[in-house]
Amino acid sequence: MVAMAGPSGFVGVAGTPWSLVSQMNATAFSYCLAPPESGKKSRLFLGAGGKTAATTTTPFVKTLPDDPLRS
């Protein structure tokens, strides 16, 4: 695990080829974003670690390359 102090950028989790999820070939991911003022760490899990029993899941939506909402 890599820990960073303060904001360090952004991560793409869409189904596009350049997103982190696609580049890692992950079939699942989950995250928990802690409020900045809480002092707690936010978490991102990819692959099998992203599947948990106590959550609701939403599958990726397949889009066409010319879809205006695809970014």
Which class do the helix and strand fractions yield?
little secondary structure
Low-pLDDT ranges: none
Task: Report the strand count.
Answer: 2
Figure out the total of helices. Answer: 1
- Strands of the widest sheet, in order across it, are 1-2
Fraction in helix:
under 10%
* Element string (H = helix, E = strand): HEE
Largest sheet: 2 strands, antiparallel
Beta-strand residue fraction: 5-15%
Choose one word for the global shape: globular
- Mean pLDDT across the residues is 74
Number of domains: 1
Work out the radius of gyration. Answer: 14 Å
| Spatial separation of the terminal alpha carbons | 29 Å
Folded structure, characterized:
It is a single chain. This protein is low in regular secondary structure and 71 residues long. It has one domain. The protein has one helix and two strands; from the N terminus they run αββ. It is globular.
